[in-house]
Amino acid sequence: DWSAGAVSLVTEPVVWPETGRPRRAGVSSFGVSGTNAHVIIEQAPADPADVAAATATATATATAIEDARVPLVLSAASPTALGDQARRLERFLADRPEITLPEVGRALAQGRARLSHRGAVVAGSRDDALTALRALSDGLPDPAVLSGIADVGGTAGPVFVFPGQGAQWVGMGAGLLGGSSWLSEVFRGVVEEVSGVLAGLVDWSLVDVLRGVGSDGVLERVEVVQPASFAVGLGLVRVWGELGVVPGAVLGHSQGEVVAACVAGALGVGDAVRVVVGRSRVVAERLSGRGGMVSVFLPVDEVVGLLPVGVEVAAVNGPGVTVVSGERAGLVELVGVLEGRGVRVRWVAVDYASHSSQVDGVAGELRELLAGVRSVVPRVPFFSTVEGRWVSGAGELEGD
């Protein structure tokens, strides 16, 4: 009987007058199972300084969000339709400056059909996005644009791509490692598993490295960063698996190929760790300090003609991105030429010439070191970037 007593149901907005004291309210929850909960909430202080600080924080956050690198994904039934899509999106972004790139990126990824002809623009600003969309619509090469044709009839699921050295940062995985959720438990389990294999192979602590404990610059050591990156990659796969996201196929670049092989089931965790440790140790002892790598934002055909003596193509990361490798003096010379022409370049965080002829000198030692490693038939489709083909049989990873 709500007409009796001092309790009433609030079924519409009511006036809440100022009384000179902070407003407080009690919220009760009565669960059907018998669980009762009650929380008291209090009005926040109206300090002008707090309001100004909150406004400044919100503005900075909005600016950071707008400046983040965001993928804008498009798909269409034909190349012509894809170009039209890019043109329409370019006009939309130009006409609607109040809508942020992350908002547009989320709408494109979640709210549009996935057709066979695909295009993607990765932009850090609205101007960059407009320039790249114009290139996509006109069919012109641009380092921020990717395009291709997808098989929309398959149901394989997402493709997991694992990076090589250079993608690491201090504190990677630290949040998951120190968290209290069930996902952190999963991640810690992987770190403990990898640490157990590392215990007899290295003289440093994986947990300390991931937490950022120890000497500065430890992640610059190839024999540390590669095993640590492997552990983080494998741990993230297990975490995503707990959330129901499992790979339909895997591939990796450079050291990422070892992570991909392990996730695919072609290599066991123990063998994969031994490959990473052995490979990184030989590189550190034989090649470290003898060279470097640079990412050049040009098609490989244009880069080849500019290479000085001692520098060679290491990897083709995309239609407009080529990685070169070699002696540092030659790389410095090349970077100077490219920057003089206004070409974007980026030094890779390594001090050796990976994926170059320098590595040939340690191939025999590596073969001998890894002679006991055995690969089996992958459980998950595994595309090898080294072989340029799908790996489908046992023993296919045991060659050169």
What does this entry look like structurally?
Strands 9-10-8-11 form a four-stranded antiparallel β-sheet. A hairpin with a 4-residue loop joins strand 12 and strand 13. Helices cover 40% and strands 17% of the residues. The model has no long low-confidence stretch (mean pLDDT 86). It starts with 23 loop residues before the first strand and ends in a 9-residue tail after the last strand. Helix 2 runs antiparallel to helix 4, helix 8 packs parallel to helix 9 and helix 9 packs antiparallel against helix 10. The chain contains 13 helices and 13 strands. The chain has 400 residues and is an alpha+beta fold.
Give the gist of this structure:
It is built from 13 helices and 13 strands. With 400 residues, the protein is of the alpha+beta class.
Residue-averaged pLDDT: 86
Major β-sheet profile: 4 strands, antiparallel
Strand content: 15-25%
Computed CA radius of gyration, to the nearest angstrom: 27 Å
> How far is the N terminus from the C terminus?
84 Å
DSSP E strands, number: 13
Low-confidence stretches are none
Strand order of the largest sheet: 9-10-8-11
